[in-house]
Amino acid sequence: AAPSYVMVAVNECFVLGLGLCLLNCLLSSVGFTLQRKAQLLSEQANLRDTWRSQLLWAAGVVLYISAAAPDVIAYTLVPQVVCTTVACFRLVLVTFLAHTFLQERVQMREAIGMAVCSVGTSMCLIYGPRSLDVSVIAPTADLYHPQVWGYLAICLVLLLALLAVEHSRWFSTKDGAMHYVVLPLATGLAFALEKLFNTELGFVQTPTSLRGLLDAPAWTGMVLVMGALGLTDFYLNIRAAARMPVQVFLPVSFALATTLQFFQSMSIFGEFKAMVPLHAALSICGAIVALSGALLIQPPKFGLLGGPEVAAEDLEGMLVKCDGIAKPGCGKDDDE
After folding, report:
1. What whole-number distance in Å separates Cα of residue 294 and Cα of residue 254?
2. Is 0.85 surpassed by the pTM of this model?
């Protein structure tokens, strides 16, 4: 009876976690669409629509903020590869909403990317891992995966080194080419590490009282580090928007963060260890296909490197389509 109970509980956690992933995808996508619609209305310079654009913008911001909660909870309930693949699918939903409600017509390349990403996401959800571990039922009071420490030490040293290089006065006097490498690397690494802690929270005993926060240093420490990494990610996005073309930075940093999360899923959390080899292979292929489709929808414009910086007024109102956080980003291409 015990194995049956565990299986039912794990399946319920997976369904709940997947539902929260999709809810995050929906809220962040609708939030982006509303903010984009508000920007378009404000550009029409119709004073009678000012209140409408402000209302839409406020609603979009609220939805973006609301999307963060289900995302954090979902990473504690389902394997990281599932959350990451659904994050790739978010770009499909954003593009669909833009085509339907903003009259930003989908081109052939984007349509192919949407189809490819949808197929990859379906493969990962159908054949991918279903549970984090039996520790979802009985979490521990300390870090569940000891290999996290070694990986974390290496990545944090690398992140600090990248930040030091980015803020070095010597590199700031150069032609700016170093920014094109350092900023996407640092941003992708910070985001992936944030999700590493987020997933590990699912294996750590959650405090049930204020006193419990003092008795659970692992949980408290991970939450604090997650917040610090989230702020670092936000800061690096703002910094990158002023120093390199966002049409290059966003797709590249998104691809790096997603690739690192796939690596963490396989090597750190061992989410494919107990799977049938064929299903594991199909799931991994699906994740890669989903990422490829997302990049096909919004490929990096490397030809813009070394060109003129984006003016501040051109950055205003532009939003990221690659993740669920409102920050400066890339809209539709000017030539489309």
Report:
1. 10
2. no
